[in-house]
Write a structure and sequence with these properties.
about 210 residues; five-stranded antiparallel β-sheet; globular; mainly beta; 1 helix
Length: about 210
């Protein structure tokens, strides 16, 4: 099937690394990149012409999302219509997991970001997914603790802030033969379950 390709659009003159994208629907998206030249995470609002049916893309002015990023930026569209950002931060050697919740609508030239929040203190490999149990599904933040346990927290959105529950263990290293490290997680809406992908010391990738 022939594909109609539009004109390329340059959105970042810096060395943009670790890109993340949230499809907000209707030809609207939010893009985040690590601007290595300035040591910041930057975000853009992308608009596709004709509500997503055209081939012309426009980008908003750049916004600063985070001042001390380390790595691992993630963006998702929440069922309530918000965009949720999560990243690893390194502020003068103090590492933590940060989140921000934003609002963006068709025609907007920027994201209205809420206050930056600390979701977790420490240096973790972290992923997030949404448990889409209703109009305001919970955010599942899952992470690897010293390559020994996979733990998680549940967050509830209210406006542009997230309230996090207590830390829970979903997989203990002692219970899994040759457990090595957590890789990713994903919510399955049809079954109401979370799939967890991790590796073992024998170089096998497994799913639970």
């Amino acid at each position: 099937v022939p594909v109609s390709q539009g004109t390329e659009l340059t959105i970042n003159w810096q060395n943009g690394a670790s890109p993340a994208f949230a499809n907000m629907g209707g030809g609207l998206g939010v893009l985040a990149v690590h601007d290595q030249g300035n040591g910041e995470y930057r975000t853009y609002v992308l608009q596709i012409a004709n509500s997503g049916t055209g081939t012309t893309v426009t980008a908003s002015s750049v916004q600063t999302l985070a001042d001390h990023p380390d790595s691992d930026i993630k963006l998702i569209k929440h069922s309530g219509g918000k965009v949720v950002a999560m990243w690893k931060e390194n502020n003068d050697g103090t590492r933590s997991i940060k989140t921000r919740v934003g609002t963006v609508s068709s025609g907007d030239s920027s994201v209205t970001w809420g206050t930056e929040q600390t979701a977790l203190s420490g240096n973790y490999s972290v992923r997030m997914t949404e448990a889409q149990t209703g109009a305001n599904g919970e955010i599942i933040m899952m992470y690897d603790v010293s390559q020994q346990n996979i733990k998680y927290k549940i967050g509830t959105l209210s406006g542009t802030s997230i309230s996090w529950g207590s830390e829970q263990t979903v997989i203990a290293g002692s219970e899994i033969t040759n457990y090595h490290s957590f890789r990713d997680c994903c919510w399955d809406n049809s079954s109401g379950r979370v799939a967890i992908v991790y590796s073992r010391t024998n170089s096998r990738i497994v799913i639970a």
